[in-house]
Amino acid sequence: MKAAICLLAALALGAAVTAAGAATLVNTVQPKVTQLKNGAPKTGLYVGNSFTYYNCGVNGYVRGFTKEEKRDWIARMITISGGRLSYHSVKEYLAPHPFDGYDKHKPKFDVVFLQAQSTEPINPKEQANFNEWFARHVATIREAGSEPIAIITWALKDKPEQYQKLADATITQANKLGVYTIPVGPAFAESLKTRPDLILHMPDKRHPTAAGSYLYGSVIYSALFHKSPEGFKFLGACEKPLKAEDAKYLQQVAWKVTKEFYGWK
């Protein structure tokens, strides 16, 4: 009986993930940049806010995967609560500092992730500021010899119409500057469509649960290394490990969405 129940659960999970992979993603603007120039980044910098640092930080989730496979990857996270891109002194972050171990790397960071405030790219009062500072930071990052990456964030729980708007607005600006984008928001939308029981938002309807952060990290891993996170045993840390079946599902959704988003085979 127990074996039969496990088999049925596995079949249900496979069916849900297949549906996720076959579905049309929320974005209507297609990314022009579908590959990183640096195919094997070893150092990274996460620039963002609470979306990135929640649940002890998305850096910890990506690190969980890379540590398990013994990949050469280290990353720093610099976040500001409620921070817009204009709050960040990216030029200062990339400058040399006494006793900074990252300075031995050339460039200091191979890639720099830019994660805007949740609705900044689509808020009529903030959109121009986002566009300006996104372009400024992209130029600064490139001057330092690093590669910029834009994170597509997710919608508020009670405003699903934001998924398409956030994706299209972020991709549009990234396309203008030839910047690689990572489809975290589209992955959230797909997961919620096929498994609404797996909660990705905290009660505030904004911040990620541990499952949301796990999906965030899975998509970053997929897009960063052009490799599926499927099969990793890492379930998350920070006293918030997921159930194995939930982690497996999120790994599969992350890879299917990433492949579809970039048009990878």
TrEMBL record:
One of its GO terms (molecular function) is hydrolase activity. Residues 1-22 form the signal peptide. Keywords: Hydrolase, Signal. This is SGNH/GDSL hydrolase family protein. It comes from Mesosutterella porci.
